[in-house]
């Protein structure tokens, strides 16, 4: 309920200047403490009493109007920095009442404005980042906490979440709204497949707790639901015993066919704890391929290299074996990313494309794409290519090809030079590759930079579209949540 304070009491408790005190339902703008001290509009609706703050200063709005892609910029009209879960509930209810769009922003690591809003309220999850509890079975953590913070807390107790993305400076709520894929997906599925319970605020402003046995329909819809049905505010993540070390194996292959065959063999026998890989440009203008794998262990019981590498057809002269402590392995990208930040490349636009390809079509499609791909098309980015099993995936709205083995194919482009022309070309190229993947039975992993129309989204969800649309109508009937995806209309 709106805290119906008198105007004098409300303004006395408000932060001077940019703190928001009301919304003008006629003029469709926020009223700040400073402007309200002069005149409160007749159509003003007081904002709820908040434990945090609702602000409209240019710095906060500008940050919320950007993301890691630096391509799309949609300016919200306010940013909520919640001081509690109750703030999220109150703001979503207020947004419903006054027809205001809402989206939760984690660390802004999407690349095409997915968590942005034009003239809405962005909820900054960084102020909801508490790790509430860790025991030998699970961790209870707020949605705004980073995976990096969670793994540090759990490893200190000899425990670990099952699945990490390569980059762990991401919010837990953010990856659970998407999917969360990594090298351990071969064994445990996606991050969304490794959740015991959620607390969410549905689009109609209700705080609900859900799990596989309690409100399971909502639980399954929200995980991988792209923020369309509810805002994740807290999650319970299962934990496993953490190993002490990781031995990394980088195995080089000169041709795509042999690489893909060995990757599928490694997936089938599960000999490595972590299985990833990528395509690398060669000096001669072609491509070579890298299996990037790791075996976890605890001293004094190291892995047997000969057993792990038997039967594989890599180039033995170029094999790189490296030892890591487990925590250093999980966070192994940190030094590289720090370097990219120092030289300014991390701040360049990132027109990424991520697609899931059926294994039966992967070689032909990837070979065709790589044949026409140059360094100028990728910039100082990466091309990821590695398999996982769909049998370990359980969330209904994480769309993958209808085959047992699927490959993630990611063109992690960086626009260099960072000009609008280069960005536009890369985004256009993404659409071409997306259509090739779609026509081959592939699906988009929807964190990247490719424009999908509502018709494209219906095609993406295919037979699951009626259930997806019904869940939207059930949990977010006024369509206030996360319009930046463009699923139900132009973003």
> CATH superfamily of the largest domain, called what?
FAD-linked oxidases, C-terminal domain
Cα distance, first to last residue? 29 Å
Mean pLDDT over the full residue set? 94
Question: Which fold name fills CATH's third level, the topology of the largest domain?
Answer: Vanillyl-alcohol Oxidase, Chain A, domain 3
Major beta sheet summary: 8 strands, antiparallel
Instruction: Please count the helical segments.
Output: 17
Corresponding CATH architecture of the largest domain: 3-Layer(aba) Sandwich
Pairing-aware structural class of the strands and helices?
alpha+beta
Annotation, overall tally of beta strands: 22
- Give the overall form: globular
Name of the CATH class of the largest domain: Alpha Beta
Strand ordering within the main sheet: 18-15-17-16-20-21-19-22
Strand content: 15-25%
Q: Give unreliable regions as ranges.
A: 1-17
Total count of domains: 3
The Cα radius of gyration reads 23 Å
| Helix content estimate | 25-40%
Oligomer: single chain
Short description:
With 491 residues, the chain is an alpha+beta fold. Helix content is 30%, strand content 24%.
Description:
Helices cover 30% and strands 24% of the residues. It has 491 residues and is of the alpha+beta class. It has three domains: 7-126, Uridine Diphospho-n-acetylenolpyruvylglucosamine Reductase, domain 2 (2-Layer Sandwich); 129-242 and 474-483, Uridine Diphospho-n-acetylenolpyruvylglucosamine Reductase, domain 3, CATH 3.30.465.10; 245-454, 3-Layer(aba) Sandwich (Vanillyl-alcohol Oxidase, Chain A, domain 3). A hairpin with a 4-residue loop joins strand 1 and strand 2. The chain starts with 6 loop residues before the first helix and ends in a 16-residue tail after the last helix. The model is unreliable at 1-17 (pLDDT under 50).
């Amino acid at each position: 309920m709106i805290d119906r304070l008198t105007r004098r009491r409300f303004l006395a408790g408000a932060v001077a200047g940019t703190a928001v005190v009301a919304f003008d339902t006629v003029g469709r703008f926020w009223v700040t403490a400073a402007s309200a001290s002069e005149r409160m509009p007749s159509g003003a609706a007081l904002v709820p009493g908040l434990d945090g703050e609702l602000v409209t200063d240019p710095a906060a709005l500008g940050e919320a109007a950007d993301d890691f892609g630096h391509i799309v910029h949609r300016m919200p009209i306010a940013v909520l920095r919640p001081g509690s879960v109750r703030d999220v509930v109150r703001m979503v209810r207020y947004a419903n009442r006054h027809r205001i769009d809402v989206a939760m922003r984690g660390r802004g690591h999407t690349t095409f404005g997915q968590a942005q809003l034009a003239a809405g309220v962005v909820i900054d999850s960084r102020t909801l980042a508490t790790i509430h509890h860790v025991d030998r079975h699970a961790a209870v953590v707020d949605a705004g906490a980073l995976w990096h913070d969670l793994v540090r807390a759990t490893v200190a107790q000899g425990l670990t979440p099952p699945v990490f993305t390569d980059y762990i400076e991401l919010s837990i709520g953010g990856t659970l709204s998407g999917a969360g894929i990594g090298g351990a997906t071969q064994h445990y599925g996606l991050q969304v497949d490794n959740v015991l319970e959620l607390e969410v605020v549905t689009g109609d402003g209700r705080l609900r707790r859900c799990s596989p046995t309690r409100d399971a329909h909502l639980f399954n819809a929200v995980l991988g639901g792209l923020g369309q049905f509810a805002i994740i505010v807290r999650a319970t993540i299962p934990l496993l015993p953490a190993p002490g070390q990781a031995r990394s194996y980088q195995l080089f292959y000169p041709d795509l066919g042999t690489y893909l065959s060995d990757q599928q063999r490694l997936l089938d026998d599960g000999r490595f704890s972590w299985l990833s890989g990528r395509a690398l440009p060669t000096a001669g203008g072609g491509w070579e391929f890298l299996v990037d794998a790791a075996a976890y262990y605890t001293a004094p019981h190291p892995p047997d290299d000969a057993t792990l590498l038997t039967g594989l057809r890599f180039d033995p002269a170029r094999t790189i074996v490296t030892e890591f402590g487990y925590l250093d392995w999980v966070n192994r990208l940190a030094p590289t990313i720090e370097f990219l930040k120092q030289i300014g490349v991390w701040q360049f636009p990132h027109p990424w494309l991520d697609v899931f390809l059926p294994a039966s079509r992967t070689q032909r499609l990837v070979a065709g794409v790589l044949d026409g791909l140059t360094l100028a098309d990728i910039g100082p980015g990466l091309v990821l290519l590695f398999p996982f099993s769909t049998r370990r995936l359980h969330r209904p709205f994480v769309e993958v090809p209808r085959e047992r083995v699927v490959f993630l194919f990611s063109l992690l482009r960086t626009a260099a030079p960072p000009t609008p022309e280069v960005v536009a070309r890369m985004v256009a190229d993404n659409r071409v590759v997306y259509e090739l993947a779609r026509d081959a039975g592939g699906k988009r992993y929807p964190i990247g930079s490719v424009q999908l129309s509502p018709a494209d989204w219906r095609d993406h969800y295919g037979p699951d579209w009626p259930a997806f649309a019904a869940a939207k109508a059930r949990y977010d009937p006024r369509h206030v949540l996360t319009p930046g995806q463009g699923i139900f209309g132009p973003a």
